[in-house]
Amino acid sequence: MEIDRAIMESSDQRLRTKYKNATYVIERAFALYQISETNLTSSSVPTFSIQSINRGKFELVAFSFNGGKDSTVLLHLLRAGYYLHKEKSDQSCKNLLDGTLKCPIRTIYFESPSAFPEINSFTYETATTYELQLDIICLDFKSGLEALINEKPTKAIFLGTRIGDPNAVGQEQFSPSSPGWPPFMRVNPILDWSYRDVWAFLLTCKVQYCSLYDKGYTSIGSIYDTVPNSLLCSGHSPDSNENFKPAYLLADGRLERAGRAKKITSKCESASELSNGLNNVDPHLASSLTASIIGVGDEILFGTIGDKITAALCKKLHSIGWMVVHVAVVRNDIDCVAEEIERRKSTDDMVLLFGGVGPLHSDVSVAGVAKAFGVRVAPDEEFEEHLRHLIGNHCIGDRNEMALLPEGITELLHHERLCVPMIKCQNVIVLSATNVSELELQWDCLIDLPNTPFVTMAPYISKHLSTIFSDVEAAESISNLRFEFPDIHINCHRKSRVGPLIISFIGKDQTRVESAATKLSKKFCPGSFSEVNSE
Ligand SMILES: Cc1cc2nc3c(=O)[nH]c(=O)nc-3n(C[C@H](O)[C@H](O)[C@H](O)COP(=O)(O)O)c2cc1C
Ligand SMILES: Nc1ncnc2c1ncn2[C@@H]1O[C@H](COP(=O)(O)OP(=O)(O)OP(=O)(O)O)[C@@H](O)[C@H]1O
Ligand SMILES: [Mg+2]
Fold first, then answer.
1. What is the C-alpha separation between 406 and 380, in angstroms, rounded?
2. Which of 127, 205, 297, 352 is packed most tightly, with the most Cβ within 10 A?
3. Tens-digit pLDDT profile for residues 310-351
4. Where do the MoaB/Mog domain residues begin and end (predicted)?
5. Where does CATH 3.40.50.620 sit in the chain?
């Protein structure tokens, strides 16, 4: 089989490993889901939305093909995987080695009026060449998949999703469809392939790909949001059109989507502008900057450990005049992290995230940040270099997954006292501290940076009084005081149900804080209140 032979004869060891892993996933998926090859029954007549071409076999797996480079790679891997799968079960398959192996897999293409004509024609020609059983679906993805699954049982769908794609966040090689989507298994055999791997495969196998890639397109969406990648522009031709080099010459695969329009919402943009411009804010005007803190950790939610970092961070933020308005602890789950960040990044000036940073399966914070901003994670070579100095070459696989950072929005915050820079994505800062002393170091560095994201304002000053009066006895006087001192935060907490009661006065003006405390003391007989330190 020509694909298998081309890869096995290639000297590219990395490509061979990628190929073996991908075809292994494909073979397992065939074994899991392709139960039999039964003829279609009359009940499987296509609905108005699905036009069927050349359908012959009935399987529980389908291939989502759109003529793009990633799905073209997948097509040939599926052909190779089918051959390897057949080879094991049927020795007569050996004679397929030299012919063009057809893979009779059900193939779905979501056709759209905004697709490039070159993509459409390449898709149809390829389907004919390889005798794919093509279903053309003219609905949106979700409704189309619903219609498809209603019409024919479909347990699994192969996709050419790769780890850097915006939609890949949180996915694995086998990922169930998302909540709210019809139920099927998404099978992503090339999830861990890089841009370079994709081109190494297509060129090594000498297979055809869509002509747009030779005209400087590096990732293809719709005609409305896709242009050639300007990084491949090689000047102007005599007829004043720009000339572009082919996609495989793009040196930095992280910039694969540079020709695609960004999907970041205006909310994010304004948050970004704010966070980038904070250093210019007048400290007096900026007296109401707010922060929220998000801890990521099942260990906190299970009560395995107590969270001391949040309390320490609140104190640090108050010491530079910032108000902490929201604290949350969420599970080590990408969607939980993303949802929380999504909410906070648009309401607060800065979001601080800790926990869930590292190489473990539970370390999902950075992926959660990417998902919240709707961007993909992509290998960051600079960050990888720092990690290599720290941990040597002990990373898992070909790449250090810790070096996958949200693309296009990540700023690395360097400080000479830190072995690895901190990660800032617009107004979200990811702290890798795992205890209070590490947090203190990172905080000191953050504040010390010439381009610190934190403007230092008048600090919050606090005074804490303890009283032997019960909450019932003190309640009315404290409540009245709030109207007289609206600029002072008056918080109460009890050491126990029977006392003592601690009243805290917190504000930016020392005199006002003192006056509020004195006023309350005077409402009761002398000696009823004593000053205490905060915890
Ligand atoms: C076969 C197939 C299955 C999909 N399954 C899901 C899914 O389970 N969850 C989801 O959020 N999106 C799903 N999508 C949508 C994709 O994640 C993504 O939105 C789509 O590839 C379009 O990308 P674009 O928005 O960048 O154009 C699916 C798409 C296809 C073609
Ligand atoms: N219109 C579509 N019809 C069928 N499958 C699709 C469609 N759009 C996306 N897919 C599936 O989603 C995968 C990821 O899409 P994506 O656009 O990232 O990759 P691609 O189109 O193969 O390559 P490129 O990144 O160069 O555009 C595809 O490989 C394909 O499996
Ligand atoms: Mg595409």
1. 9
2. 352
3. 999 999 999 999 999 999 999 999 999 999 999 999 889 999
4. 292-425
5. 2-195
Choosing among 3.40.980.10, 3.40.50.970, 3.40.718.10, 3.40.50.620, the CATH entry for 289-448 is: 3.40.980.10
Give the tokens for residue 295.
């801890």
**How far does the centroid of ligand 1 lie from the alpha carbon of residue 376, in Å?**
14
Q: Which residue has the tokens 């090859």?
A: 37
CA–CA distance, 221 with 263 (Å, rounded to integer)? 12
Residue 420 CA to ligand 1 center (angstroms) comes to: 35
pTM over 0.90: no
Q: 146: part of which helix (H) or strand (E)?
A: helix 141-151
How far does residue 312's CA lie from ligand 2's centre (Å)? 46
Per the DSSP assignment, residues forming a β-bridge with 157 are 62, 186
Location of each CATH 3.40.980.10 domain in the chain: 289-448
**CB-based neighbours (< 5 A) of ligand 3, an ion:** 68, 220
Task: Report, at the CATH architecture level, how domain 461-532 is classified.
Answer: 2-Layer Sandwich (3.30)
287 lines ligand 1 (CB under 6 A): no
Domain 2-195 classification at class level: alpha beta
CA of 161 to the centre of ligand 3 (A): 9
Q: Is 370 exposed, middle or buried (0-12, 13-18, 19+ CB in 10 A)?
A: buried
Q: What is the pLDDT of residue 236?
A: 66
- Mind giving me the DSSP string for 36-96? --EEPPGGG---TTEEE-S--EE-SEEEE--SSHHHHHHHHHHHHHHHHHHHHH-GGGGGG
Cis ω for the linkage preceding 500 (within 30 of 0): yes
pLDDT tens figures, 270-318: 333 334 433 433 333 335 799 999 999 999 999 999 999 999 999 999 9
Considering only CA atoms, which residue is closest to atom 24 of ligand 1? 221
